[in-house]
Design goal:
Elements: H1 2-32, H2 34-40, H3 43-51, H4 54-70, H5 78-102, H6 104-109, H7 117-120, H8 125-146, H9 149-169, H10 175-195
Helix pairs in contact: 1-2, 4-5, 4-10, 5-8, 5-9, 5-10, 8-9, 9-10
């Protein structure tokens, strides 16, 4: 009887070992081939995430949070923080979407951007325009009602600067890098502005 139990235990260990090996092979294959992970995502969700440049927008939101925290103990409440972060994310998504709408022909000619949703046909121009407009209106409205007019104005200006002036200058002048620098500097200022209920020109931190 004892021998039988030992045999069963040994058999179970072997099965567990084989299962682990199979799982490790699967995980290793997914790590080497990112397309496997991409296939698991909903094409619809992925298309809109790519349109919004989700990773870039997340980075922008993190700088807004840093600006909010830089205000120190005088910073606004949690609801204000949520409003400015969500509003920034929506404004950033709107700007990214408009940028891809204007640049879709150039994107189709560059290998780096050939998989963007408007190039591949995952989204139509009308769908992208509707999303960009909805995100822009939602973002600026959230900033206006959840923070203050100054922060709202900064959010709106970033949409215009990135999707308009930056995109327009990109193929014709290196000046677009200076516009891009301003675009990148605005989000932390938005966070600080939201935390202090509007900017003070005399504030030495700014």
């Amino acid at each position: 009887m004892l021998l039988g139990l030992c045999c069963r235990a040994h058999s179970c260990r072997q099965q567990i070992t084989r299962s682990k090996q199979v799982l490790l092979r699967i995980l290793s294959t997914e790590a080497k081939d990112p397309t496997i992970r991409e296939k698991k995502k909903s094409p619809f969700v992925k298309a809109y995430a790519d349109l919004a440049k989700a990773r870039l927008s997340a980075l922008v939101v993190s700088t807004t949070a840093a600006g909010f925290l830089a205000a120190g103990p005088v910073g606004g409440d949690f609801c204000t923080l949520v409003s400015v972060l969500a509003g920034t994310a929506l404004c950033s998504s709107s700007a990214a979407a408009y940028n891809q709408i204007w640049e879709r022909d150039r994107d189709a000619r560059m290998k780096r951007t050939q998989l963007r949703p408007l190039v591949t046909g995952a989204l139509s121009v009308s769908q992208a325009t509707a999303a960009a407009t909805l995100w822009g209106i939602s973002g600026t409205s959230l900033l206006y009602f959840g923070t203050d007019p100054v922060t709202c104005s900064l959010g709106f200006s970033n949409i215009v600067l990135y999707s308009g002036l930056y995109t327009l200058l990109k193929p014709i002048s290196v000046t677009n890098t200076w516009v891009g620098a301003v675009v990148g500097a605005i989000p932390p200022v938005m966070g600080y502005s939201a935390a202090t209920a509007g900017l003070s020109v005399a504030d030495p931190t700014i």
